[in-house]
């Protein structure tokens, strides 16, 4: 999937999993974790794309101490992280090493990332995510001076790089609008949080 699909699914599934647990979530962290597995793109010399950082086993191991401290409150964040591989990357593009290091076997349906099916799916989950942002008023959090919003630097670059320098891939014209919406929200949140941080440091 492109960044839009991962971001939307991470937010939606993280938010939905929090409801039955009756726990509040940090929306910025949900968005950030939803694209975090793709950090391997920046280290091609020693990290294979859709390899270790996309492993569900690695995610579970990393979350063990987080579960010890936060217990069920950590579940929405784990969901936001693993959906990247289990849903987005399973459905589209090259296959993924879900069970690394136990096996390097790859799994996935292999639907082309630029196919009409894939782009329609990304538009659907993006549209639903926007509706949920509006309904829950989560979008307001992007314009409030929360220092924790600085983590949105990660998804900001994830969305901006393909748009500006076409790295790691080219974004089709039909997916430009949702990418730009996310860029606006994330940049606004980062700037507001940054100026709040600078102000409090003076």
What's this, in brief?
This protein is mainly α and 202 residues long.
Primary descriptors:
202 residues; mainly alpha; globular
Number of discrete helical segments: 7
Euclidean distance between termini CA atoms: 42 Å
Q: What portion of the residues fall into strands of 2 or more residues?
A: under 5%
Structural class: mainly alpha
Mean pLDDT: 91
Radius of gyration: 17 Å
Largest sheet: none
Please give the share of residues in helix.
Answer: 55-70%
Could you give the order of the helices and strands?
HHHHHHH
Number of domains: 1
Account of the 3D structure:
The chain is mainly alpha-helical and 202 residues long. It has one domain (3-201). 58% of the residues lie in helices and 0% in strands. The model has no long low-confidence stretch (mean pLDDT 91).
What's the helix and strand layout?
Blueprint: H1 3-21, H2 27-35, H3 56-70, H4 75-91, H5 116-135, H6 153-164, H7 176-201
